[in-house]
Model the fold of this input.
Amino acid sequence: MKQKGRTKINAGRLIWFIGMVLMILMVLAPIFVMFKYSISDRASVVTGGMPIPLWPYHPTTEQFRGLAAMDAFVKSALTSMEAALLAVIVSLAIGTPAAYALVRYRFPGMMVLATLLISVRLFPDIVSVVPIVETFTKVNLLNSVWGVGLAHSLLSMPYVIFIAMGVFETIPKDLDEQAQILGASKLYSFVRIILPVALPGLAAAAIYVFLLSWDEFIFAYFLLAFGNLSTLPVLLQKILSWTPQHNLLAAVSVMLSIPVIIFTFIVQKYMQAGATAGAVK
Amino acid sequence: MATVRLHRIGKKYGGLEVIKDLDLVVEHGEFVTLVGPSGCGKTTTLRMIAGLEEITSGELYIDNYPANQIPPKDRGISMVFQSYALFPHMSVSENIAFGLKIKKYPRSDILEKIDWALSLLNLEGLATRLPKDLSGGQRQRVALARALVVEPQVLLLDEPLSNLDAKLRLKMRAELKRLHKKLGSTVIYVTHDQVEAMSLSDRVAIMHEGRLAQVGAPLAVYNSPHNIFVAGFVGSPSMNFFNGRLVRKDESLVIDLETFQLVLPERYRSKCTGCLGRKVILGIRPEHIYDKRLSKTESYLGNTTDVVIDVVEPLGDRDIVEVKKEKICFTALLEPETNAAPDQPMTVVFDMTKCHIFDMESENNIIHSP
Ligand SMILES: Nc1ncnc2c1ncn2[C@@H]1O[C@H](COP(=O)(O)OP(=O)(O)O)[C@@H](O)[C@H]1O
Ligand SMILES: [Mg+2]
Done:
């Protein structure tokens, strides 16, 4: 027996569903194309006028093996990794205590300072790149991974401070005060109580900085373009300028994206609330 | 253990004066409760004693040493916050050991003290749990254990029971009393719940708008409140207040409430004659108003009046009965045998030997002046 209510299709929900599917397709299509190219054999890319197939004729890992064997790629990947880690360390080492001070020790003009901090990012990168490159040239930070890492930590510092301020604001002041009464110094309670409780939130900030550095092109390009170092985005640009080989380019792009995808999943896991559960109430 | 002495303590936030001229001495081993309505300055006072809040004026002495400038960790105090402030990433035993580790106790001492605290507060078996895996009552006990294990001279407690459900609160109240008896430490306790204050304390300090309204043993503040605020704050259900005028009738003094009159007992006469003809406020507790039919005491019988029952709230052992007499409403605590029912008429008796008379202007108790 058919039950009328169950089988009735709700028009609104159907439209909603179709819309969702379309949006997912729109997001996934470029990723699919990138991935498809990266595993394409030559015949599936250079088709001599025939339409490019939806799936390669002979999927291959040739490009990836080629990249792994390519000195420039391996070196750039390492440089990217180093610069990103440097950016994470520097921006967190400075940004986290700064954020804590801003949250716990309210003082006049605090909002002005906070706004100034974020105003660094109000200008387009292309505007701030010139003074930064010039300054870095003077202190011999051109063509070095240190320069790129420092530049990236400058770029990410405002985000770190704002994310960390948000994290510290959720940690009750009672915890600091309780530690203080039990004999802890300010530093001790920051290191032993506040930091561990803030860790999940700070991890999110760290991953954000890592990805920002990993993807960043303009600063890396101006700081490295005239030497022999390059980060992955800079390498991609270099490859683009000699032979635009679709499948090789796509393989580099996939390698660039993998950390982004992995870290996004990690962030989501860490973002789940509950860091301060049980502290109060 | 130590004494705590507050001498003319004041606190201002900017221009806002939240604590005014507070004088209080807490003796060695005494359990004193700061009690008062929300916002009256209890937490601020406690935080000043703890050293978390700067003292604007006046002097604080702990163990007879001036303590205004001593940092919290050197005051010999422990504090349990209303929120418990357990360190969420540390297990129960790590929380308890925190203060001991900072004070660099030897490892074996720390383990011994943790065991002592765990068994004192019935927390055995929970040592490795994280705060988030504890119930409200258990968290409260961990916070208490952490405070007690450092052997404070003075234990400060800010509304430690207010986050617990009613039943657990009663249980922990008895537990706290047992702990205090056992350890004999000086305790300053903050609560807004007067029943809690009365049942726990050696003395209660009732605060009102940043001032001390009265300090005394629970029974003393119940029996002889110095002013209307204390009279209305202490006791549940609250004291009834009636506007009236003190007049002479025949040989005795009576309070004229317009709709009826009540005769004052002989022994209050000397204190009240000075107020003859003045407007006063009569205060009488619901538990001192009886059903005439059930009252066996002949001596009250002059002070009766006919009323109509408005609302009845049965508690089991007693009924809270709200009654009306023309425009005047008041509350009586009656025995269930009265069988009170709404809209019934009845006659009530006032035990005027237990009444209070307040001056309308100063709001001070004329009968029990300080
Ligand atoms: N940091 C502060 N700044 C300004 N006013 C405050 C601050 N802390 C408390 N107060 C005020 O002081 C008064 C007393 O507060 P509190 O001691 O917390 O009261 P209680 O604990 O008795 O409820 C309140 O009116 C409150 O608004
Ligand atoms: Mg309070």
Notes: Chain B touches chain A at residues 50-52, 72-73, 77-79, 81, 83-89, 98-99, 102-103, 130-134, 136, 139, 146, 150, 163 (CB under 8 Å). Residues 166-183 of chain B form the longest helix (18 residues). The mean pLDDT of chain B is 93. The two ends of chain B are 30 Å apart (CA to CA).
